[in-house]
Amino acid sequence: MARRPLPRILSSGSASIARSREIARSAADGATDVLHPLITVSRGLRKLAAAGRARWAATPKERRGPTLFLAAACVLGVVLLPYGPLLALVSVMGAAAWKGRERPAPRPGPDETGKERLRVLYEALVPHFSAPGDPDPLFAHGGDWTRAFGDHTFDADGRPVRLRVAYPAYFPDGDPAARARIERLLHAKSGRGREYRFDWDEEGNRLLMTVPPPLAPPVAAQRFVTVPGETVLGFTDADAVRRTVPVRDGDTVRDAPAVVWRTGPRSTEPHLMVVGQPGGGVSTLLRSVALQALAHDAEVLVLEGFGTGEYACLAGRAGVLGVECGPTGALDALEWAAHETERRLAAAHEARRAGGAAPPETRRPLWILLDRPTVLADLAAAEGRTGPHELLQVPLRHGRAACVTVVLAEQFDTVDALGEGVRAHLRARVALGSAPAGQLAAVLGAPPRTTAPPEVPPGRGYARLGTGEVLRVQVPATPDPYDEAAPEAHRRAVLDLLPERLVREGAPVADPATATEAACPADGTAPVPN
Q1: Running DSSP on this structure, what letter comes out for residue 412?
Q2: Do 198 and 163 sit in the same domain of this protein?
Q3: Around Cβ 446, how many Cβ atoms within 10 Å?
């Protein structure tokens, strides 16, 4: 059978289409050459505008008014100058042309080692992100990993430092156990020995895994720029908080992102709970809190359950009501704190009924620092006395109205003995030292977004204020100034912050070498504040 020739319109159409494409391509190349300066200037203006927006967003709110005034004065000066607007326009166009002269280089794809690592990650995630009835599975054995992985970056060793994973909508991303399984798998397959942060986008079905930079080394104790009622618990990541505090780090001064805890009558988290391992930095944080409270003219009462003399440096100082280390003195001090809270409430109530302000002595902050109350509870039960958990109920319930703040420190293995009644009032929480993710979530009320660091230095952990986000934190270095094993610079910084020692009439000044014995006598019968 003879083959029929194609119609003329079909046989000649391919040639005309090819000629049309060639003409269009030539026209596009010519237009690009002609408009290249305009494209360069537009790209530079876009970059300048983005830099300006980023600079404005990074400017603190208290500095935006003066910045706007200075910018308006500069604009007015340029307008009043001869040929000022023309020169300004030429300068802006020149800066834009210089800024947009180079196109952003395309991000190179992964090498063969990176592709192999991504393929292994993809195959490991298949059992978790696949279902038998899925008609078009995103994860399947031998599938295309480029559909699921995007925005990937690797370090010099070929390990991923940033990876965005797309997962199917039926994955239960609201289940903490399911999330934990995925995070553990990615942590193990991406390389151990560093921290990972996981950000779940439940609305877009995306998981972003990044490697956060390590936290800065601890700064020495110092007078932080805060107002009364604000306490710096430590320092965290730069993108985690909006508040920065100038700190002195050696011979330099820098702005550090701080975790600031606010107390007082209007605080939503009036009390703090610190949980940690032995040597994790719990005593360091309590000393830092005490020094900051004393700097704002507060009264401090320190109660220690195990009597090691960690707070002997505060004994006899101005503003320190007492440092109790024995069970008898500590329980008596707690009873006094409960009665003092009730007295303050009664005095403030009577003053308001009379139409006046509360007395000044009821508005002066009173801080109760209690370290290891479970030890005191065991000793009180053995002696048949009321335990610290019952004595703390009044300061915890009414402390915000009476300007009484309770800071309670405990260890991970005994924190459950505090009881729900005590922990319910301790809404600001800090966990220091190494601990499993389950223990951290139980203490903080939510799991941390980062994995545990390979090495946990003293004073490193997590903080959460109320229902806020769990933040990484490094507390200020506030060692015992009488501990010769501590660095000399840190010990000297603490001694410089201590208030002056009170000298009673006819009594010699206490020797720092014997301060521990004076603050914590063997029988534990140190005087209770009047």
Answers
A1: G
A2: yes
A3: 15
